[in-house]
Amino acid sequence: MTAMREVYKLKWLFFIMQLTSELAEIIGALIGDGYIYNKNHKYQIGFVGHPNNDNLYYKKLKKLIFRVWMKNPKIRIRERGLRMVINSKEIVSTLSNSFNIPCGINKCFNVVIPSQIYFRWDLLKFTLRGIVDTDGSVFVSKKPGVLNYPSIEITTSSLNLANQIKLALIKKGFKVPKIWSYKSKNLTYKVALNGQKNLEKWVNEIGFSNPYKLNRAKKYLKYGKRGS
Prior knowledge:
By secondary structure, the chain is of the alpha+beta class. Helices cover 50% and strands 25% of the residues. The chain contains ten helices and eight strands. It has helices spanning 2-16, 21-33, 55-69, 89-97, 107-110, 115-118, 121-135, 159-171, 196-205, 211-226, and strands at residues 34-39, 42-49, 75-78, 81-87, 136-143, 146-156, 180-183, 187-194. The strands form two sheets. The chain has a four-stranded antiparallel β-sheet with strand order 1-2-4-3. The chain has a four-stranded antiparallel β-sheet with strand order 5-6-8-7. α9 packs across α10. The radius of gyration is 18 Å and the shape is globular.
């Protein structure tokens, strides 16, 4: 029976870890605002979000996780944030060993987009979507002559990740300024996509799964059409 269970487990793991656009998007969300815990025989993949803004998105992410990993995690509010945790030694091991997603508190400094995804735009665009859905900002600011100047900003503590994102977006025709950094709790890097054309290109070619950020983007695109 033990041998049969191991065979079944391997078949299940092969099935759920096939590299699809849906798995690529989950990996993006994990890169953006997730973590992997692997200590004391405890294996967890967790996601942390805003309790108000990300509520609808987490319901969508939960459905995505069920379709890909056949796991049905609960969404809870803890420590003033949305929390969703998946317990699985097999998934943790595969994410760590096959996709090189770091475990532990240093993940935010070292994480990069896996090479299996990075060199395939059909997958990479979904990982970028997952990153912005979780760790990106969509907002407007005042510029000379422009009342509502839209921007997307991706914030990360991983310089290598910031460089990956910038180069990938430039290759696809986005206008990306120099990465800028500032010292908060840790040294933090920002990749910015400024202006109406960048925002429209993102919506059309990459998109959002986070309804809160999608609605903001649509609203700001309307501002541009009105010329304000």
